[in-house]
Amino acid sequence: MKDEPDFAYFLIFSHPRSTKAFRCAFLIPAFVAILLLSCSPMAGIGPIGLQPVFPDEARCPELASPFGSQTRYDGSPRPSWAPGGGSHGGIDITLAEGTPLLALAAGTVVKKGEGGQMLGIYLWLRHSPENTGLPYWVYSKYQHLQSLPELAVGAKVVVGEVIARSGKTGTVGGHFGYYGYPHLHLTTRKSPTGEFQGSHLTDPLVIYHEASPKPKESVDPPPRENTVTIPYVTIDGQAWPQGTRVVWPVACRRRQATY
Ligand SMILES: [Zn+2]
């Protein structure tokens, strides 16, 4: 296909109608394309492509905006000046204000505080390999909380324990205007040593994926590789699957329950 560049050159520069306007019609879109590519998302944050799957009998608050997404839950683009360079550094779950938020695994409260716009009131937990059964430490951050959690820094929590209430702090007055956007933003980081320094941002679905017991080979049909079956706790405190050490950060309802 050696002829192609010559043909393109002819078309742009040597064509009888290669006026200034004609050349611009080719060159400006090319320049814009290069500009867009150079502003691509920060390395390390990108869509992983994992799909959460909730068991049939569970009704769980689902993902509104996945990790690595370039858009908010309403489809609007994330600004490139935001943390993460316009790529979502966690997952969003749309929730009514005051919804109880659960420790995704046993762990320790390591930090809490109130940030400004886009951060809001937050809580950090640290989970040891013993807490999760994973070969690394996990840090989890719950954002946009309704109020500062009462749990003290250093407090131990068990898996599924209510650690905070969801809210919309840090979302009012920006893109979402006066009403804000009540939701949980959950960030997770993997740490090989347990130290925060040296930890790296990870899609929470990767944590769920790696913490889930691997299906037996006889399972038919085998689950698709990019799906993650989400372990959860019901509103009455029943964990599924039994004995799971990692759960969804919001309780699920059983479908057969009466409301
Ligand atoms: Zn978010």
Structure description:
The protein has 259 residues and is of the alpha+beta class. It folds into 2 domains: 7-38; 51-254, Glucose Permease (Domain IIA), CATH 2.70.70.10. It is built from 4 helices and 16 strands. It has helices at residues 3-14, 20-38, 129-132, 204-211; strands at residues 51-53, 58-59, 63-65, 91-94, 100-102, 107-114, 121-127, 137-145, 156-157, 162-165, 183-191, 200-202, 227-229, 232-233, 239-240, 253-254. The strands form 5 sheets. Strands 3, 4, 6, 7, 8, 9, 11 and 12 form an 8-stranded antiparallel beta sheet that branches. Strand 11 and strand 12 (200-202) form a beta hairpin. The radius of gyration is 23 Å and the shape is globular. It starts with a helix and ends in a 5-residue tail after the last strand.
Key structural traits:
4 helices; binds zinc ion; disordered N terminus; two-stranded parallel sheet; Glucose Permease (Domain IIA); alpha+beta
Element layout with pairings:
Layout: H1 3-14, H2 20-38, E1 51-53, E2 58-59, E3 63-65, E4 91-94, E5 100-102, E6 107-114, E7 121-127, H3 129-132, E8 137-145, E9 156-157, E10 162-165, E11 183-191, E12 200-202, H4 204-211, E13 227-229, E14 232-233, E15 239-240, E16 253-254
Parallel strand pairs: 1-13
Antiparallel strand pairs: 2-16, 3-4, 4-11, 5-10, 6-7, 6-9, 7-8, 8-11, 11-12, 14-15
Bound molecules: zinc ion.
